[in-house]
């Protein structure tokens, strides 16, 4: 799940509404009889989606478009996995961080039931909850988790991505050594841990597993029949297989089991089901004749709370700004985004994740939004071939340099040691380029960026190369220093021409024809 960079979007499109008023009576399937204007929109969306899927080499995708309390359009594109089954509107995808909106809804349901107080400390509901700073742990309120202002860091949330294989409560109890990055309630900082903790509160207060609560209290009343608490709970083969680019080739990859991080990013749903969810979010918590939250509660979920950047605010599992309410999400091999834009709602699901083209993934939904408002979409940017050609070329150069260094290491070089000045220069070069720089990369990437297990999980191939290259450099540097040290201790060899002047004990002997005294 990513710490998203949402662009400011202008709330324009009111001039196009007149051209789309006939959409209000649309049906979920474009195959049904529709007014000509609707078919034109569907044709444009289809053309745009097909071009985007091909340009970004996506295995599959699904979209849903709603207006008011009706689904206008849902459709799947491409394949759901290696078995090449077509993606349909009912194909389930692992959502990523769009799960946070569902978790926030679960919390708000318990708030309206009088079982949770947003102003209460987390420890009222999770008495065992502790972070490294025990006093600060006592000051974290439920609302701080919802607004991403608890002080927990983005980095700590990333670490949890590779430690979420434990049950939720066990995962949360393992946070005892986790430090806060800022004072409680002082500033926005996106962290998956905030919503994992909220999931723990839902479990404790409801008395049932988080997934079961979501299934019974949200999925069931909203008619989300293709949605599941996790991929493992779905029927075998039903959930779309995620893909990742490995050295530029999209390949299916197996997603790890994430029971401990389900509330922050591993719920499963389909484009059709998420369209139902958007309808409820856009209609005061109501879907058909069922209500999952009051209108006031939904408005509270969408209200700006914590300032992010560029006029954007975090609400409760949603971001607001530019006239829209939205949230996106990504796992190691899936992507999703949903948006509420006035009376329109759009959801996009993709069974792939390419972090080199994530802005292009965002641009797909932006393009659909333009089409809905009768504006021409900006073509999805893609330099897929060029980017991976450059990365692969760099990888080949680094690999070739490593092979050449190993070759030189074992090549017989009688002058390798050289004089004292040359030896010192060689040692300094080896220490700098084979030890200090690789060591700094290994140490600083997990401290300043993301942990190495996350790098390898989200960037297979390149992530592994980035991790192994410094290790190989360290080993090669140590070997080169050992060779230099051995060369420095080796006895100086006497040329054959000089050996004739030495006697058996090492003393001088006379040359043939020399005069004797």
If you had to describe this structure to a student in words, what would you say it looks like?
InterPro entries: AmpC-like (IPR050491), Beta-lactam-related (IPR001466), Beta-lactam/transpept-like (IPR012338). Keywords: Membrane, Signal, Transmembrane, Transmembrane helix. It holds the Pfam family Beta-lactamase. It comes from Cohnella xylanilytica. This is Beta-lactamase family protein. By secondary structure, this protein is α+β, with helices and mostly antiparallel strands. The protein has 2 domains: about 15-370, DD-peptidase/beta-lactamase superfamily (Beta-lactamase, 3-Layer(aba) Sandwich), CATH 3.40.710.10; about 385-490, no CATH class. Helix content is about 40%, strand content about 10%. It is built from 17 helices and 14 strands. It has helices at about 35-55, 100-110, 135-140, 140-145, 155-160, 170-175, 190-205, 210-220, 260-265, 270-280, 295-300, 360-370, 385-410, 420-450, 450-460, 460-490, 495-500; strands at about 60-65, 70-80, 95, 245, 250, 270, 285, 290, 305, 315, 320, 325-330, 335-340, 345-350. The strands form 4 sheets. An 8-stranded antiparallel sheet has the order 2-1-14-13-12-11-10-9, sandwiched between helices. Helix 1 runs antiparallel to helix 12 and helix 2 packs across helix 8. The chain is globular. About 40% of the residues are buried. Residues about 1-35 and about 510-515 have low confidence and may be disordered.
């Amino acid at each position: 799940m990513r710490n998203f960079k949402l662009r400011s979007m202008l709330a324009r499109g009111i001039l196009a509404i007149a051209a789309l008023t006939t959409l209000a009576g649309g049906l979920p399937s474009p195959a049904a009889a529709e007014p000509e204007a609707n078919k034109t929109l569907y044709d444009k969306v289809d053309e745009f989606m097909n071009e985007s899927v091909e340009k970004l080499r996506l295995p599959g995708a699904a979209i849903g478009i709603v207006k008011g309390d009706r689904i206008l359009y849902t459709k799947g594109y491409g394949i759901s996995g290696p078995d090449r089954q077509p993606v349909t509107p009912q194909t389930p995808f692992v959502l990523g961080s769009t799960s946070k909106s569902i978790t926030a809804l679960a919390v708000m349901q318990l708030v309206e039931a009088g079982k949770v107080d947003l102003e209460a400390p987390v420890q009222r509901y999770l008495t065992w909850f502790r972070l490294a700073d025990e006093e600060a742990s006592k000051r974290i309120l439920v609302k701080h988790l919802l607004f991403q202002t608890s002080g927990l860091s983005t980095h700590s949330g990333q670490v949890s991505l590779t430690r979420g294989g434990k049950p939720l409560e066990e995962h949360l109890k393992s946070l005892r050594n986790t430090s806060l990055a800022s004072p409680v309630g002082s500033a926005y900082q996106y962290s998956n841990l905030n919503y994992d903790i909220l999931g723990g509160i839902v479990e404790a207060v409801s008395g049932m597993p988080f997934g079961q609560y979501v299934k019974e209290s949200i999925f069931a009343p909203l008619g989300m029949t293709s949605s599941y608490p996790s991929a493992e709970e779905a029927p075998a083969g039903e959930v779309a297989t995620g893909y990742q680019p490995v050295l530029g080739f999209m390949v299916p990859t197996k997603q790890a089991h994430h029971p401990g991080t389900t509330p922050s990013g591993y719920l499963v749903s389909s484009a059709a089901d998420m369209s139902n969810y958007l309808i409820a979010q856009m209609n005061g918590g109501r879907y058909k004749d069922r209500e999952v939250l009051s209108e006031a509660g939904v408005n509270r979920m969408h209200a700006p709370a914590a300032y992010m950047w560029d006029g954007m605010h975090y609400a409760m599992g949603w971001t607001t700004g530019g006239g829209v309410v939205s949230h996106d999400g990504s796992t190691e091999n899936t992507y999703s985004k949903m948006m509420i834009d006035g009376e329109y709602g759009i959801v996009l699901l993709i069974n792939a994740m390419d972090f080199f083209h994530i802005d292009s993934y965002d641009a797909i939904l932006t393009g659909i939004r333009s089409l809905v408002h009768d504006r021409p979409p900006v073509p999805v940017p893609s330099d897929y071939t060029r980017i991976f050609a450059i990365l692969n070329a760099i990888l080949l150069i680094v690999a070739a340099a490593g092979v050449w260094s190993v070759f030189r290491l074992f090549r017989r070089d009688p002058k390798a040691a050289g004089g004292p000045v040359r030896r010192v220069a060689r040692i300094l070069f080896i220490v700098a380029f084979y030890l200090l720089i690789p060591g700094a990369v290994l140490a600083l990437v997990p401290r300043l960026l993301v942990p190495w297990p996350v790098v390898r999980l989200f960037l297979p191939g390149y992530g592994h190369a980035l991790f192994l290259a410094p290790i190989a450099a360290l080993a090669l540097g140590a070997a080169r220093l050992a060779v230099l040290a051995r060369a420095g201790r080796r006895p100086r060899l006497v040329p054959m021409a000089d050996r004739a002047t030495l006697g058996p004990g090492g003393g001088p002997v006379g040359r043939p024809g020399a005069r004797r005294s």
